[in-house]
Design brief:
The structure holds two protein chains of two kinds.
Chain A: E1 13-18, E2 23-28, H1 36-50, E3 60-64, E4 67-74, E5 77-84, H2 89-106, H3 113-118, H4 120-130, E6 131-132, E7 135-136, H5 141-152, H6 161-180
Antiparallel strand pairs in A: 1-2, 1-5, 3-4, 4-5, 6-7
Chain B: H1 3-11, H2 26-32, H3 43-58, H4 65-76, H5 84-97, H6 101-115, H7 120-133, H8 136-150, H9 155-171, H10 173-176, H11 180-187, H12 192-206, H13 210-222, H14 228-244, H15 257-263, H16 269-280, H17 287-301, H18 306-322, H19 324-327, H20 331-336, H21 343-356, H22 362-373, H23 378-394, H24 399-411, H25 416-432, H26 437-449, H27 454-467, H28 475-487, H29 490-506, H30 511-521, H31 527-540, H32 551-558, H33 565-574, H34 595-599, H35 616-628, E1 641-642, E2 646-647, E3 655-663, E4 667-676, E5 681-694, E6 699-704, E7 706-709, E8 715-722, E9 731-743, E10 756-761, E11 765-767, E12 773-775, H36 781-788, E13 794-802, H37 806-817, E14 820-821, E15 834-843, E16 847-857, E17 862-871, H38 874-886
Classes of the chains: A alpha+beta, B alpha+beta.
Chain lengths: 181, 887
Amino acid sequence: MASSRESCPSVKNILLLDSEGKRVAVKYYTDDWPTNSAKLAYEKSLFTKTLKSNAQIEAEIAMFESNIVIYKFIQDLHFFVTGDENENELILASVLQGFFDAVGILLRNNVDKAEALENLDLILLCLDEIVDGGIILETDATVIAEKVAFHSMESAELLSEQTISQALVTAREHLTRTLFQ
Amino acid sequence: MAQPLLKKDDDRDEEVEYSPFMGIEKGAVLQEARVFNDPQLDARRCSQVITKLLYLLNQGETFTKIEATEVFFAVTKLFQSRDIGLRRMVYLMIKELSPSADEVIIVTSSLMKDMNSKTDMYRANAIRVLCRITDGTLLTQIERYLKQAIVDKNPVVASAALISGIHLLQTNPEIVKRWSNEVQEAVQSRAALVQFHALALLHQIRQNDRLAVSKLVTSLTRGTVRSPLAQCLLIRYTSQVIRESAPNTQTGDRPFYDYLEGCLRHKAEMVIFEAARAITELSGVTSRELTPAITVLQLFLSSSKPVLRFAAVRTLNKVAMTHPMAVTNCNIDMESLISDQNRSIATLAITTLLKTGNESSVERLMKQITNFMSDIADEFKIVVVDAIRSLCLKFPLKYRSLMNFLSNILREEGGFDYKKAIVDSIVILIRDIPEAKESGLLHLCEFIEDCEFTYLSTQILHFLGIEGPKTSDPSKYIRYIYNRVHLENATVRACAVSTLARFGAVVDTLKPRIFVLLKRCLYDGDDEVRDRATLYLNTLGGDGSVVETDKDVKDFLFGSLDVPLLNLETTLKNYEPSEEPFDIASVPKEVKSQPLAEKKAPGKKPTGLGAPSTGPVSTVDAYEKLLSSIPEFAEFGKLFKSSAPVELTEAETEYAVNVVKHIFDRHVVFQYNCTNTIPEQLLENVTVIVDASEAEEFLEFATRPLRSLPFDSPGQTFVAFEKPEGEPTVGKFSNMLRFIVKEVDPTTGEAEEDGVEDEYQLEDLEVVAADYMIKVGVSNFRNAWESMGPDFERIDEYGLGPRESLAESVNAVINLLGMQPCEGTEAVPQNSRSHTCLLSGLYIGSVRVLVRLQFGIDGQKEVAMKLVVRSEDESVSDAIHEIVASG
């Protein structure tokens, strides 16, 4: 009954693909793509359609199958966030930016596919901290990264106390840099 | 799903990418999962195995029921470990496995322990996991903890509980609704996101309680909302309250508008944009209200961020559909977006410009678009073509440059859908702008000379056959058509033969030449082509001399079937071979499903070629045939106008009824389209009892009941009234549906023998002056006005009293008269104090009427109007004034 305009801003999926359009990590929150093959088909056509755009510096945007897709690329990684066509574009963009920057912090600015796979647990936790069942949980990259890193703290020295604070410092530097670009 | 990684390994030897998941296999990982059962847990190892399992699931791998159960039980063992990182992976894994109810019980106690742990992270995550996998019975056990968590000091815990509440509200609303006190407290939280989540949940709990939502909005719009996301939510709820609140009070101020306007000055862009968009979507938004929103959107247009530019241009594009004048200020910024790197933005900018452009800017705009067209994808081109078509209909005088543009792009490369969109547009322009006909037809002729799409070729040939003979020099099209007979495939050749024959049948002087051409077709390699040629040569008559073609022959060859094809098909199927030949008169003429119902379907665009005659004309045709097939109405003469269907019932009621008013010279026929939406009922002998006591000049003449109305199969019943000849008689009718209802056995579908008489009250129906006016546009109003002359001109002035706005008054008068606005004059520029609007129409008795309306508005919003009417009949000019005076 309630149209999307009256309800909470929501996200349909978050995708992290590699430079060939293959999955690194994906998370779907709606039944718009009920089967794995429907999901793969969506990822493939989205990847092909956006491949040529220049989404390295600023996040780009496209209408795709009655959805709004915001995307950003770095190295051999392609980040996507999909939302309903009536969704506020800037809210979706803030989700993408949160994800993108949090991954940057967690991978210590060494963002590429190999590193992402190496730390896939962090990426999956990161997705889990951004959106819960389609509802936005947190969009502030530092907060997201802190939450993810906190969990790993005592476990097998993935990130020591020191590296977290280092990571946060680098993240802040990175953010300030992008702001002044 | 592991194969792609392996394969890549094969084809790229020089640079092998290292991946921790290279060569991963489900079976092996499941084996590895046994480490979960070790008495001495290796937390790091276990984390890695879970990551591998999650990787497999993420790649689309599925676990069988047994595998999933095994993994699940193994994972539950890991609650023994005190390692936070591992615990976090365990939570993720449990959510991904979505365990069954009896499995959930196994982890419940562990999760409940974590929910009460001292570590906030445990608590937050345990809440999210437990709420995800729980069912209603368990929920009552943990409800107490969740209520506490909602008001917890730690924002992460509070947010986790609130979000879980939003999800649980779908399945267990009665439980979640009991938390409103806690949720209300959380709305006041100082943590930004807690406020956002609490607000979302609180609104969902109360969304059916209008008063509560209104109170919520009233208090929050005065207070402080910290998070931009929460602010966006509040804007959405405010719009909802505005939409549902009573129409403007005496002051004319909209409640909460000030709040929306204030949000335009917020520091977060997402809030500014949400507010701007909300303002543009207010129903009946005035120019004054729009201005500040348009101003901030205009600033966004020159942002360096593509997302911002896109959001702004998309919203402005929507505004341009209803308030083109409000957007014109942005035209300069919009023009610079035509070259935007992001083609979605460029296309939206173009189509916005096409909607807002004025007559003088058309040429300049077309030049810019021409450069742009070559480097966008077909789907964008189609959007542009659609926009150009509407522009051309708005400024018919500019047809030359627009038609040229269309013909140019028609010659360029493009796929079928794109070409079809162009051809459809040209066809529509030919139909609506008489001056454009000849050049348009020639463009189409040139196109089929080199057209790779059989469908388009045949459609164009068919269209040429209808329109070509009516032009000043039909012979010039023959060459193009005959070329098809030589150069194309059999389908197109057969179609070309039919088109040639049409020219021969209609244009007598061309007949001898057509005969020569048709005779040549007798040697075609395809039998359909030969058969058609033979048929035409034998039926056209005159043996190649200049004679008039017999009317019967024309009707036989080119007339339309006067029975619905669907009915013909059923009757033919039921026909059994016998001595008696098939009689087309035995086909029922009643249209089973009403054609208008599908025409009304949202999003249906005007079709061009596919059905060249499905304009408003053909609905009239369909109605005319339907009515003339009913003996009682056969004598009424020519149908003047049929109204659009008027709904007489609310949506989703037991019986859905709408009515179409058919106006004849001396009669009015109400066609009630009825649908029975109850599967267990069969209605019989359905009639509408019409009380015309408030329509004194109408006399009931005849009623045609509907014999049977089964479930979900629409039918019609008619009531006819007599009225004074040629008079625009008005009146109000009340309607009552009367019928015999019979119970239907849902299993067998059989109806019971006995029925009960019943009645169903319908809404009232009015015949108004506008029902006697047909919208007929003129392409050049000034010419038409001059040539009509001032002989029967009538001028008067009217005070319309205080109105909402100038645009609203203009609209009201247009609707009152039911006439066609010309040259885009129905759009009122924002902030203007005066406006001239030109209207054209055909009044009952086929009298052409032209109207010139001049409006002025003063500081008190008092609107004055000068009405100048010209028509071919003095009494009609007076009648128009009477309509306005009494309206």
